[in-house]
Write a structure and sequence with these properties.
- It contains 17 helices and 19 strands.
- The model has no long low-confidence stretch (mean pLDDT about 95).
- It is globular.
- Helix 9 crosses helix 14.
- It is α/β, with parallel strands linked by helices and about 525 residues long.
- It has four domains: about 110 residues, no CATH class; about 120 residues, 3-Layer(aba) Sandwich (Rossmann fold), CATH 3.40.50; about 170 residues, Rossmann fold (3-Layer(aba) Sandwich); about 60 residues, 2-Layer Sandwich (Alpha-Beta Plaits).
- The N and C termini lie far apart (about 65 Å).
- The protein binds iron/sulfur cluster (2 copies).
- One iron/sulfur cluster binds next to helix 16.
Length: about 525
């Protein structure tokens, strides 16, 4: 893509997740912009998010390279007022001109390097790279601060609290860096503090630039042990080391919280989630030595307590290929879990391969009709397209049959006994067996019901019948159950009224509130 001499603007948005709040890792994707030779902008607030997007398109059109807009979750989740400018050029139609394929790789590479030189000139002039002065600069030891992304906002606030005389080099156009601006900044200070989340991306380049101009400036950052390389930064993460470099007390010492006895809880699916029922049912019938390959979605929580049904989970769509490998390598029963959205995204090719090679695996497609974990995006199995127009949903079971699988069953996981029976047959089947475990995401179902004014039933435990076996908590794991003084209760606020726990309780102690007994 980078080698293609693109004419229209192309902006790639990459949302990094320091802290891994909703990702499987907290990798620092700023290095991809360097590796791929694409310019990178990093917004530090909502306004810059909007302004930089526009600027990124302008840069892409000017130098004919894609532009990387790299954000982090704290910026993505922030809210604020926006100032809109005038609309730019009127909407245009795209045109495809010529065939941009060349086999002269050296010429292509040299072309990209030239474009990156132009990008450096733009970075040098960019309004997103700026120096902010705080309280003037006095004589004596001069300490400056460099920051990017959300750390610009943190640094501004902490410098304000410290009330020190300093300057902050706020960098928004971070690949390529504005070398002249940075070297000029380095040369004006005795010491610099670099504030950035994750890897020492800026710090390493500042060390190099300082060396190139033979500056004696001391650079404090991650390599000096002042800032952590892992984890999401908060104000407090930045406050202490920044104050230390300025020889001042931490303006934001950690407050000791009030002591509240909270129950220890693992991450878990929502109350009433059909994925819990799928895991519960399969756990009852699966051989003890089975190996589970999981995938990306809410259902990966099945890898945690009380199910612990995930020996591996990597990228989207990897579970089916992993299960094939596990089966071949170990000869043990291998089960792949994959969601409906992930199946359409990247599950069909490995399934075709599994069928073609007749691998002896069971694939469980956890079809809850939603891309629930990442915000309910639509996919080819939903009845709306990406523009929210009516669309014909593609049935996963039809696709699976089309790929040649012969054992294909659709179950409602909210019916535990029926689901167990299907899984028993699927695991015993020789070759690829596919079970589509289909029930709407409980969040969506509850919203729909509330929207239609339908009543959501409530459930309670008959304390005369309950024997405190705790199957509902320890084995089934619905978070709506809680224990007080050796008695088990259902929290009305959390309970979504699915009623599945009635099938789970071995002594029939759970009843619908207001329902007549017998
Ligand atoms: S499973 Fe039934 S009997 Fe056991 S603790 Fe829960 S409600 Fe009580
Ligand atoms: S009905 Fe039972 S399983 Fe369903 S949400 Fe309520 S407590 Fe949980």
């Amino acid at each position: 893509m980078v080698e293609t001499d693109i004419k229209g603007g192309l902006v790639l948005v990459c949302a990094d997740d320091p802290g891994g709040t909703s990702s499987v890792n907290e990798q620092d994707d700023r290095y991809i912009s360097v590796l791929a030779d694409v310019p990178m902008l990093e917004p530090s607030n909502c306004q810059e998010m909007k302004d930089m997007t526009k600027e990124a398109f302008n840069i892409a059109e000017e130098i004919h390279l894609p532009v990387f807009l790299r954000t982090v979750n704290t910026v993505n989740l922030s809210r604020g007022d926006l100032i809109f400018g005038k609309l730019g050029v009127p909407r245009r139609r795209g045109e495809i001109k010529g065939v941009p394929i060349s086999f002269d790789r050296t010429r292509c590479h040299a072309n990209i390097l030239n474009k990156m030189e132009k990008a450096k000139e733009l970075s040098e002039k960019s309004e997103f790279n700026r120096v902010i002065t705080f309280n003037g600069i006095k004589a004596g030891k001069r300490i400056g601060v460099v920051a990017s992304s959300i750390c610009i906002s943190y640094a501004e606030e902490i410098i304000g609290e410290l009330g020190v005389e300093t300057e902050l080099l706020a960098l928004g156009f971070t690949n390529p860096l504005p070398e002249k601006l940075c070297q000029d900044f380095i040369s004006r200070f005795d010491e610099l503090v670099i504030v950035e989340e994750l890897s020492p991306f800026l710090e390493t380049q500042f060390l190099k630039m300082a060396h190139e101009i033979s500056a004696k400036t001391k650079i404090w950052g991650k390599e000096t042990g002042h800032f952590p390389k892992a984890g999401q930064y908060r104000l407090e993460t930045v406050a202490e080391p920044l104050a230390k470099v300025f020889g001042m007390d931490n303006p934001m010492p950690r407050q000791k919280g009030a002591k509240i006895a909270l129950a220890a809880r693992s991450l878990t699916n929502c109350p009433g989630c059909p994925h819990r029922n799928t895991y519960y049912a399969i756990k009852q019938v699966v051989p003890e030595d089975a190996i589970f390959a999981n995938d990306q979605g809410c259902y990966l929580l099945g890898g945690l307590e009380p199910y612990r049904m995930s020996h591996a989970q990597y990228s989207m769509g990897a579970s089916i290929g992993l299960a094939c490998g596990f089966r071949q390598a170990t000869g043990k029963p291998a089960i792949a879990f994959i969601g409906d959205s992930t199946f359409f995204h990247n599950g069909m090719s490995p399934l075709a391969n599994a069928v073609h090679h007749n691998y002896d695996i069971t694939v469980v497609v956890m079809d809850n009709g939603a891309t629930a974990m990442s915000g309910f995006q639509l996919h080819p199995g939903t009845d709306r397209d990406a523009m929210c127009r009516e669309a014909v949903p593609i049935k996963i079971e039809d696709v699976v049959r089309g790929l040649g699988a012969t054992f294909v069953e659709v179950v409602n996981p909210n019916k535990i006994e029926e689901t167990k029976e299907v899984f028993q047959r699927a695991i015993a089947h020789k070759g690829v067996s596919v079970v589509v475990s289909k029930a709407l995401c409980k969040l969506m179902e509850t919203r729909e019901k509330r929207g239609k004014g339908l009543e959501i039933p409530a459930y309670e435990i008959d304390q005369e019948i309950c024997n405190q076996c705790k199957v509902c908590i320890d084995v089934y794991g619905c978070p709506a159950f809680y224990e007080v003084a050796d008695k088990i209760y259902i929290d009305d606020v959390q309970c979504t009224g699915c009623g599945v726990c009635q099938e789970v309780c071995p002594v029939g102690a759970i009843t619908e509130k207001g329902a007549e007994n017998g």
